[in-house]
Specification:
The structure holds three protein chains of three kinds. By secondary structure, chain A is α/β, with parallel strands linked by helices. Chain A has 20 helices and 13 strands. By secondary structure, chain B is an all-alpha fold. Chain B has one domain (about 25-40, about 50-270): MetI-like fold (Orthogonal Bundle). Chain B is about 70% helix and about 0% strand. Chain B has a two-stranded antiparallel sheet. In chain B, strand 1 and strand 2 form a beta hairpin. Chain B starts with a helix and ends in an 11-residue tail after the last helix. Chain C is mostly helical. In chain C, about 75% of the residues lie in helices and about 0% in strands. Chain C has a two-stranded antiparallel ribbon with strand order 1-2. In chain C, helix 3 (about 60-95) packs across helix 7 and helix 5 (about 115-125) packs across helix 7 (about 155-180). The chains are: A alpha/beta, B mainly alpha, C mainly alpha. At the A-B interface, helix 1, helix 2, helix 3, strand 2 and helix 4 of A face helix 5, helix 7, helix 8, helix 10 and helix 13 of B.
């Protein structure tokens, strides 16, 4: 359209039409970005989920900037899209970030594609691995397990723990009634069997109170499997025969596996109605609003329960560690599901030296203390086993006790499909569409199919 | 006339009630936007509560990343520019398809339609690769192009359909009077296409204004629009319901205003005394 | 300067065709090519040509058929609901009443929100414990329903949400279509004292039919290929009852990283869409021919 034609058109169009079109055309002539200041200094960009720990990290990084002159910026993405955003950038073989904090199970997916910078030599030189529990290093740094090759340092420690209503647990009337019914004292459960009894005891639909809320959604991330595995392992369950030959049938669905699935499905009965899609937010809400007596959460979310602005029972909430269990042969096991994120460097960064400096600053005891003092969780033993740590957050005693018991699930790239299938089948079992045994048999068979297709059993 | 006014009054009342019922979720969003988390998730839900503006404040004082104002500016530029392009390109192509003879016209139209058939999720990776190599990653221009392409097939089909309804005699008569085809199109046909252009523009604006996946995956910080950081906010307290509700309400204002401004061109018989419909 | 018709034709078509060719063709070919390969977009290994293996595997898997059935039910219920509601409302909105501009804009409002937000928000409103919907139901003496997590109702929670968002689209399109009806036709009919139904049947409907079919075509295509609602509202659950094809494509593409397989399934979906749109276009040509 040549400019002298435009008035012709406007003759017939209304005046709003004219204004709107003029505005549109003006906007088509692009407004340029504000000119960026000439950059002499290196700026590091960190990619993490858009949540409070990330904002805190950025604030602490001001110290790092003061010390080194290297600027630090955040590229934070909402949790539900975080994985996809990171891996789409990886897939385009160029990243808009230098440092990232992938969720612990993503490490295989990222390393197998060559997207994370290998840090083995640097770690051997600069990091004392004795500062961390072995499992933490395996989950956040090492891949494959036991290979001695490292791709990150521990970032944010996270794991499953339980919240409970102290006012209910300490009520003398409840205690008396519980003892009458179950023959032992009502206190925070040490085993999953006790947890079951207590959940049953507090399930009172007529008072709109239920026993427990746990993640039940059929998802790979923030879904059922995250919270099921603590029970599964403590019951003596095994995901596979071992990292070497990865046989699943007959291992995952052995007697211990069935028992774990059976107990999980039984626990579902003590959930509030409609719990089959519970994930992070629903479980927190159920606890905040006093709908349940106990809830299983990831430790990072504890402030949601103890903040009086968010939680109706903020001053009445206590925490206990993921319980132990007895396997079918009578042996006791105790494992806690690990989550959290390591801190890694993108293989595509042009600022390798600076990024390494940042990691070095991050793992300093001093920095870890500052992180912990702001209420966050660190796996650094120098901090966790110092008694000063216990006062920093209401969950820290549980943190210290859980630290040696942590365990993480598959970190091979196929974790996603395996975890999701497991969540989905157990979700169906909870809804009564299949039996727990059918669920476990199905899962074992499907897991072997996935592993076979991925080439783990030879081609 | 009396009877007609009575019918209009009854219709007004009925439609107002229907609108109120239909828009209940929007009311609930307003209520959630002004509630603390404690109130928003209360069991049972609360009708009466002490309103708070904390969520609106939180949006404007975001802890990190680019500011809401910056993202809003990006949103404005990207979606209005692409809406303008879509409407103009679509109208031109729609006219051409309707009026001119063309070899394999149906196939060409079908090709244009087929650009809207793939689930967008499978083209994200090739698009990201392409944008990287063309230097379009994290630029407004990149998003403008993406959204324009996104809506173009709709615009072409829609506008062709509209031109089909306009009698050919319009421009033929003008051309007999000595107008060139171009001038006849601009002076006589284009104004008749107004309703179609407005409907296309509204729909394109809505789609590009709210688009979320491409906006997140094809940008870093500079060109990111507002929806990605509003739509799925989750912190250590769980989903930030109030924040999402407040942000969505803020974001809906410009689009609603745009629609309201253009309403006359969409509706027939807008005022009393106009033609019956 | 005078431009001939041929020149004008290409001048008018060029921006659209060039832009589409420039942006769309590479991704289209990329994904079509990969649908015949075993490939993982995050790995460095080059695509391995496997012929029709992806298609064969997908088409012989009962899971895939189950997902197509779910998608079909969802799309059919949602699009039909939107059409019925939107068309009816638009006919009313096209009559004369007070506050027309405002009320019409209000009815268009739901479509202006981000569908992702609305999906998330419906999940919140439909919760059996703290959701407002069940609260109102129970006050009315009706039973509480676990909308998003009960296998019997989950699909309807998706449909309700979709209908709520996209009914305005049908209103918008119907209104645009109604504006193309030349007013003198009604005036002539008025003189002949034609009934409301006759006017509707012989004047309104033939004129708006092309736009209505277009509206249905685009709405059907979009309902089939998007997965936002499923992603935020049910996550495919409970169990797998709301797992639609595009949601599964998303998972195969971004969680399982079987890029080749996801492309193959996307093209199977495209073939379904082509089939459906051919039916729509057939009817479109038929009503235009009249």
């Amino acid at each position: 359209m040549s400019p002298d034609m435009l008035p012709l058109f406007f003759e017939r169009g209304g005046s709003e039409m004219r204004r709107a079109l003029t505005a549109l055309i003006a906007l088509c002539i692009l407004i340029p970005f504000p000119a960026a200041p000439a950059e002499e200094k290196v700026t590091l960009t960190i990619m993490w989920a858009d949540w409070e720990p990330a904002h805190l990290l950025l604030k602490l990084a001001e110290e790092f900037t003061k010390e080194t002159g290297i600027e630090v910026r955040g590229n934070f993405v909402p949790w539900p899209q975080y994985h996809d955003k990171m891996f789409v950038e990886f897939a385009s073989r160029k990243t808009s970030f230098d440092i990232c904090l992938p969720d612990s199970q993503w490490i295989g997916e990222a390393v197998e594609g060559g997207h994370l910078l290998e840090l083995t030599d640097w770690i051997k030189e600069k990091v004392d691995l004795n500062n961390y529990p072995e499992m933490v290093i395996k989950s956040y740094s090492e891949y494959p397990d036991g290979s001695g090759r490292y791709y990150g340092v521990p970032g944010l420690l996270d794991f499953v723990l339980f919240a409970y209503r102290k006012d209910l647990f300490e009520d003398p009337k409840e205690k008396e009634e519980f003892k009458k019914r179950y023959g032992y004292e009502l206190k925070v459960p040490e085993t999953w069997e006790q947890l079951r009894d207590i959940a049953e005891f507090f399930t009172r639909p007529e008072q709109n109170l239920y026993g427990i809320a746990m993640w039940q959604a059929p998802l790979a991330t923030a879904g059922l499997v995250d919270e099921f595995l603590g029970l599964f392992w403590s019951k003596g369950g095994r995901l596979w025969s071992g990292y070497e030959d990865k046989k699943v049938v007959g291992y995952l669905n052995d007697e211990a596996g069935y028992e774990a699935a059976k107990l999980w499905v039984e626990l579902y009965k003590f959930h509030p109605p409609g719990a089959a899609n519970y994930s992070v937010d629903e479980v927190l809400t159920a606890m905040q609003q006093g709908l349940v007596a106990m809830a299983a959460i990831y430790a990072a979310f504890y402030p949601a329960l103890t903040d009086p602005k968010k939680s109706r029972y903020a001053d009445k909430i206590g925490f206990f560690m993921s319980p132990a269990a007895v396997d079918p042969s009578g042996k006791k096991h105790h494992y806690v599901q690990l989550g959290g994120q390591g801190m890694s460097i993108s293989a595509y960064t042009p600022h390798k030296e600076e990024a390494l400096k940042f990691l070095e600053w991050w793992i300093r005891e001093e920095t870890q203390w500052k992180f912990a003092e702001a209420g966050q969780i660190t796996p650094d033993k120098r901090v966790v086993y110092d008694d000063r740590f216990l006062k920093l957050a209401p969950i820290n005693e549980v943190v210290r006790k859980s630290l040696p018991l942590l365990r993480d699930f598959w970190e091979i790239p196929e974790y996603n499909e395996m975890a999701e299938y497991m969540s989905r089948k157990l979700n169906q079992a909870c809804l009564g569409q299949i039996t727990p045994k059918e669920a476990m048999d199905d899962i074992a068979r499907r897991h072997e199919e996935i592993l076979r297709a991925a080439g783990y059993y030879g081609r | 006339m009396r009877e007609e006014k009575l019918t209009a009054l009854i219709l007004t009342v009925l439609l107002s009630i229907a609108a109120a019922l239909y828009l209940f979720p929007v009311y609930w969003m307003v209520s959630t936007a002004t509630k603390t988390r404690l109130d928003a998730l209360s069991i049972p839900p609360k009708w009466i509560y002490k309103p708070t503006l904390e969520h609106f404040k939180a949006i404007f004082s975001r802890g990190s990343g680019s500011s809401f104002a910056h993202q809003l500016l990006n949103s404005f530029i990207v979606s209005f520019a692409s809406t303008g392009l879509v409407t103009i390109f679509g109208s031109l192509a729609g006219y051409a398809f309707s009026r001119f003879p063309l070899k394999a016209k149906d196939d060409l139209l079908f090709f244009i339609l087929s650009t809207r058939m793939l689930p967008p999720i499978v083209v994200i990776i090739p698009l990201a690769v392409m944008y990287r190599s063309l230097g379009l990653f994290d630029t407004r221009l990149g998003l403008i192009i993406a959204y324009t392409v996104f809506n173009l097939s709709f615009a072409v089909w829609m506008m062709k359909s509209f031109v089909d309804e306009i009698p050919k005699e319009y421009e033929e008569a003008a051309m007999v009077d000595g107008y060139s085809r171009l001038r006849a199109f601009l002076k006589f046909v284009l104004p008749e296409m107004r309703t179609g252009m407005v409907a296309t523009a509204i729909f394109s604006l809505i789609t590009s204004w709210n688009e979320f996946t491409f906006a997140l995956l094809l940008t870093a910080d500079k060109a990111r629009t507002a929806p990605p950081s509003i739509a799925q906010s989750m912190g250590v307290s769980g989903t930030n319901w109030g924040y999402i509700a407040a942000g969505s309400l803020l974001l809906v204002i410009p689009v609603a205003a745009f629609t309201f401004i253009l309403r006359k061109h969409l509706l027939r018989g807008f005022t009393f005394g106009a033609i019956k419909g | 300067m005078r431009i001939g018709d041929t020149g004008l034709k290409w001048l008018f078509l060029a921006p659209t065709l060039l832009l589409l060719l420039f942006i769309v063709v590479f991704p289209l070919i990329w994904s079509l090519g990969l649908s015949f390969c075993k490939y993982n977009a995050t790995r460095d290994e080059p695509p391995l040509f496997v012929g029709l293996q992806n298609y064969r595997r997908l088409l012989s898997s009962p899971d895939v058929w189950r997902r197509f059935t779910v998608t079909g039910r969802y799309v059919l219920l949602a699009v039909a609901g939107e059409f019925a509601l939107g068309f009816g409302l638009a006919l009313l909105l096209n009559r004369r009443f007070y506050g027309k501009g405002l009320i019409t804009t209000l009815f268009l409002l739901p479509m202006m929100f981000s569908p992702v937000v609305i999906g998330t928000f419906f999940r919140f409103m439909l919760d059996p414990n703290w959701g407002i919907v069940d609260h109102v139901l129970s006050k009315l003496g009706l039973p509480r329903i676990a909308w998003t997590s009960d296998p019997r109702f989950a699909i309807y929670s998706l449909v309700i949400c979709d209908v709520w968002i996209w009914t305005p689209f049908m209103i918008l399109m119907t209104l645009a279509g109604l504006s193309t009806v030349p007013p003198y036709l009604y005036e002539a009919a008025e003189i002949d004292r034609a009934s409301w139904w006759l006017k509707f049947r012989y004047i309104t409907l033939p004129h708006i039919a092309p736009i209505l079919i277009l509206a249905l075509l685009f709405r059907t295509m979009d309902a089939i290929r998007f997965f936002d609602q499923v992603y935020v509202l049910t996550g495919g659950g409970p169990g797998e009852v709301t797992e639609t094809v595009p949601f599964y494509i998303y998972k195969v593409a971004f969680s399982y990283w079987r890029t080749g397989e996801s492309c193959a399934l996307a093209y199977i979906l495209v073939i379904v869409i082509i089939g459906l749109s051919s039916i729509y276009i057939h009817y479109l040509n038929k009503v235009r021919g009249r």
